[in-house]
């Protein structure tokens, strides 16, 4: 019960407009004490107070429920307006004005969105007040509705925020699990890969092809694990880590990447025009990884009858890499999600890998203070373009 009371007082306290509402109530009624009260079947609790008459109650303070007119309002749910207790036919003998020493009183109920009674917006003063203008009650009813609306909005916002935090916590645990799993898979995979090499010299030629298949499977698994760990770095560690240094011969490194992709996709021609002179401040291993991911994506999803075209230039203070392939345009909706994790190529009936290649490429681009863009149309095919400053 105490916790619930404290929460209700705190909720009203988080509504910035309440202070101004109470000041306005005092101004239009001429009454010195105004409050928002929570009224239940057992308690009267002040949630917000403006006290200009030293009534002596503060937020969180309570009055005995049975001594308040608000308790009667809780039951009949109608406003009560008393301009002058001494001349009022119903309240001049009422014990509450005598107990608390007031001559004027006004109170309107506050209802929540679902119609539940919350409490009252009320005001009192030891002097009589002119409250015969119906606009005064209308104004207080409008203020009461405004307070209830703010309460509902705040509670909905807090529920949404709690749900979002819960989703974020769940996502973080999931991503941490992925990172740990990827790290722990390295050791048994390394043992398996090493033993396939050792067995090659111990077994006859009939085992050559199965061992090659096992080594290729190990290489593919190693690539998947690397992608998982890079994904975890990108999501949990503030980005994929890079080690920048002045790099000469970046063109040769990218030529090697092209050779590897050609070997892995013998049915897809890859045309490369790589012209990079001088030095580039970058992480060459990461740039090679970005380039490989773009080439593999193009070889996998482009028109198999057309070549993949790769180009690299270092000019105008920029390094620019591009990879293009022919084929159908990527739909706009999917294009917006291309650089998100687990966005896989499913539109053509294929599901390839984890869908992390383009996400990791985009993270590498960001780590180099560069950008990765895509343009796609039925006439020109799809082109990914990476730009970064040559010297950081």
What is this structure's SSE topology?
Blueprint: H1 2-13, H2 17-29, E1 33-39, E2 44-51, E3 62-63, H3 69-76, E4 80-82, H4 95-100, E5 104-111, E6 117-125, H5 134-200, H6 208-236, E7 245-248, H7 250-264, E8 270-275, E9 279-282, H8 284-301, E10 308-315, E11 318-325, H9 332-335, H10 357-367, E12 371-377, E13 381-389
Parallel strand pairs: 8-10
Antiparallel strand pairs: 1-2, 1-6, 2-3, 4-5, 5-6, 7-9, 10-11, 11-13, 12-13
- The backbone outline, from C-alpha atoms, is elongated
Strand content: 15-25%
Number of helices: 10
Helix content: 40-55%
Alpha carbon gap, first and last residue: 61 Å
Integer average pLDDT: 87
Could you write a compact summary of the structure shown?
This protein has 392 residues and is of the alpha+beta class. Helices cover 47% and strands 21% of the residues. It is elongated, with a radius of gyration of 36 Å.
Features of the shown structure:
single chain, 392 residues, alpha+beta, six-stranded antiparallel sheet, five-stranded mixed sheet, 10 helices, 13 strands, 47% helix, elongated
């Amino acid at each position: 019960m105490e916790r619930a009371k404290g929460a209700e007082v705190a909720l009203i306290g988080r509504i910035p407009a309440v202070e101004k509402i109470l000041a306005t109530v005092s101004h239009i009624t001429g009454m010195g004490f105004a409050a928002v009260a929570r009224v239940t079947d057992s308690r009267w609790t002040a949630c917000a107070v403006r006290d200009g008459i030293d009534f002596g109650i503060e937020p969180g303070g309570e009055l005995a429920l049975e001594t308040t007119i608000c308790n009667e309002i809780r039951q009949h749910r109608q406003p009560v307006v008393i301009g002058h207790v001494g001349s009022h036919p119903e309240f001049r003998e009422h014990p509450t004005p005598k107990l608390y020493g007031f001559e004027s009183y006004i109170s309107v109920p506050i209802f929540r969105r679902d119609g539940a009674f919350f409490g009252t917006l009320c005001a009192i003063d030891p002097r009589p007040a002119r409250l015969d203008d119906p606009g005064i009650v209308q104004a207080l009813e409008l203020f009461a509705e405004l307070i209830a609306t703010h309460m509902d909005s705040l509670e909905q916002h807090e529920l949404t925020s709690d749900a979002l935090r819960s989703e974020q916590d769940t996502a973080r645990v999931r991503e941490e699990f992925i990172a740990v799993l990827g790290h722990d898979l390295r050791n048994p995979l390394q043992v398996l890969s090493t033993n396939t090499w050792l067995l090659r010299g111990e077994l006859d030629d009939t085992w050559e092809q199965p061992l090659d298949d096992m080594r290729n499977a190990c290489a593919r698994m190693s690539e998947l694990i690397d992608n998982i760990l890079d994904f975890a770095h990108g999501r949990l560690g503030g980005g994929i880590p890079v080690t920048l240094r002045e790099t000469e011969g970046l063109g040769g490194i990218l030529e090697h990447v092209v050779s590897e992709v050609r070997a892995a996709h013998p049915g897809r021609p890859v045309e490369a025009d790589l012209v990079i002179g001088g030095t580039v401040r970058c992480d060459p291993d990461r740039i090679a990884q970005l380039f490989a991911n773009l080439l593999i994506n193009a070889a996998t999803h482009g028109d198999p009858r057309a070549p993949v075209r790769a180009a690299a230039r270092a000019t105008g203070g920029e390094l620019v890499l591009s990879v293009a392939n022919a084929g159908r345009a990527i739909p706009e909706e999917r294009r917006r999600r291309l650089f998100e994790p687990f966005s896989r190529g499913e539109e053509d009936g294929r599901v390839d890998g984890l869908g992390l290649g383009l996400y990791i490429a985009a993270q590498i681009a960001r780590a180099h203070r560069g950008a990765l863009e895509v343009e796609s149309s039925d006439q020109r095919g799809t082109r990914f373009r990476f730009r970064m400053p040559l010297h950081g």
